[in-house]
Amino acid sequence: MSEESDSLRTSPSVASLSENELPPPPEPPGYVCSLTEDLVTKAREELQEKPEWRLRDVQALRDMVRKEYPNLSTSLDDAFLLRFLRARKFDYDRALQLLVNYHSCRRSWPEVFNNLKPSALKDVLASGFLTVLPHTDPRGCHVVCIRPDRWIPSNYPITENIRAIYLTLEKLIQSEETQVNGIVILADYKGVSLSKASHFGPFIAKKDGFPIRIKAVHVVNEPRIFKGIFAIIKPFLKEKIANRFFLHGSDLNSLHTNLPRSILPKEYGGTAGELDTATWNAVLLASEDDFVKEFCQPVPACDSILGQTLLPEGLTSDAQCDDSLRAVKSQLYSCY
Question: Which of 96, 127, 151, 290 has its CA 20 to 30 A from that of 318?
Answer without folding.
Answer: 96
